[in-house]
Every structure is written in C-alpha cells, then in structure tokens.
Amino acid sequence: ATQEQLPITPGMACSRATQEQLPITPGMACSRATQEQLPRQPKTLFNAYGPTEAVITPLVWQAETSCSEPYAPIGFPVGHRRAYVLDINLNPLPVGVAGELYLGGELLAQGYYRRPALTAERFIPDPFSSTPGARLYRTGDRVRQSADGCFSYLGRLDNQVKLRGFRIELGEIESVLLKQPGINEAVALLKSVNTVTQLCAYIAAILTNL
C-alpha cells in the first residue's frame, strides 16, 4: 500500500496482508502514526525512499522496532546506489549534521524532457566518482546520517520561511507536532489574516472509532 492510501483505509490495507506479505511504504514520508497502523510480526515493514529521478527506491529501511521519531528512517543505499549529505558547497557533512541529500550511482534519470536548464540545476557532475560522466541528483530533501550509515528524512529544504526577521523551518514545527499522541499528519505555514501574517499549523487526528 502507498502512503496516500494507508491513512484512509489502514484496516483494509493490512487485513488483506498474509504472513508472507511485507508492508512497504513508498511515496510520502512514513510518519510514526502510519507505522502504528501497520501490522508487524510475522510481517516486516520496509520504508522505501526515492524520487522518480532516481528510479523510486535508492534507499530502503527495514523496521525492526517501533520508531520514536516523527518519520521512519529512509535507510541505506541499495545495490550500486550512493547517497551523500552535503552542504551548499558540496562538502560532505559530519555524522548527525543536517544537509541536502544527493543521490548517485546507477539508475539516475537522464534529465527532464525539453528542460535543459532544470536538468543542469538538478543533475550535476559527481565530484566523488572516478567514472567518466558520473552525476549526482540534488533531491532538495533535508536529511542527516547516523553513525551506522542510516539516513533520516527531516523535510524539504524549500520549507523555510521568514517572519518578522526570523527564519523558520516549517518542517521542524511539523516534526514536533507529529511527536504528539493522536496526530497523524501536520502542516505548518504562513497565513495572512486581516493583512497580518501569522504562523499557523493544521493537524489531522487519528480516528480510532471508524
């Protein structure tokens, strides 16, 4: 089942799974609330991450225990894929420091059809590869890497706003909200009310009595 389907019909998606089937959550970020809706033993949860430009699943995480973070980790590179956490100058960042996720290795798209400027912006030469013509894809996703090499999704880089001189990471607000019990989804944004710009948040609660 996809992330878009599970919050709507978790019982239907899970009741049809047999002991041999494995719940896989591609697409949107896998929230803690979604994990709690899925069955576990004897089944296993896989969280598959990847944009279309990298052929969907360059990173995969296998859930062994319940995750306490707002989003499930996106895991480790699979096959001949590579993943890096880099700063704006393409320097690798230390363990635990947030930065942009870049994907390399095999199975990257050639680019965007009839959009050469966007292709040049998102697909760049790979400075870490000795293979001629190797490229990296800039995902625009903010991540960090743990000491064991596992990647965690933190939100979109373009999710930063400025209000009254302060830069605000909307993704961080959403992460805090998602840690609260009973919250399935959360969105933070700026909204103008009577010409006054305010920081607002909207939540979707978990419905337990369907």
Shape: globular
User: In the CATH hierarchy, what is the class of the largest domain?
Assistant: Alpha Beta
- The N- to C-terminal Cα distance equals 19 Å
Give the helix/strand class.
mainly beta
Instruction: Please identify which CATH superfamily of the largest domain we are dealing with.
Output: ANL, N-terminal domain
Radius of gyration: 19 Å
Q: Number of helical segments?
A: 4
| Spans where pLDDT lies below 50 across 5 or more residues | 4-17
- What's the helical proportion of residues? 10-25%
What's the number of domains? Answer: 2
What is the N-to-C succession of helices and strands? Answer: HHEEEEEHEEEEEHEE
Count of distinct strands: 12
Summarize the main sheet: 5 strands, antiparallel
Q: What's the rounded overall pLDDT mean?
A: 82
From the coordinates shown, what is the CATH architecture of the largest domain?
Answer: 3-Layer(aba) Sandwich
CATH topology of the largest domain: Rossmann fold
Description:
The protein has 210 residues and is mainly beta. The chain has 2 domains: 10-156, Rossmann fold; 160-205, GMP Synthetase, Chain A, domain 3, CATH 3.30.300.30. Helices cover 13% and strands 35% of the residues. It has 4 helices and 12 strands, in the order ααβββββαβββββαββ. It has helices at residues 10-15, 32-37, 116-122, 170-178; strands at 45-49, 59-63, 76-77, 81-86, 99-105, 123-125, 135-145, 151-156, 160-163, 166-169, 183-193, 196-205. The strands form 4 sheets. Strands 4, 5, 6, 7 and 8 form a 5-stranded antiparallel β-sheet that branches. Strand 9 (160-163) and strand 10 form a beta hairpin. It is globular, with a radius of gyration of 19 Å. The model is unreliable at 4-17 (pLDDT under 50).
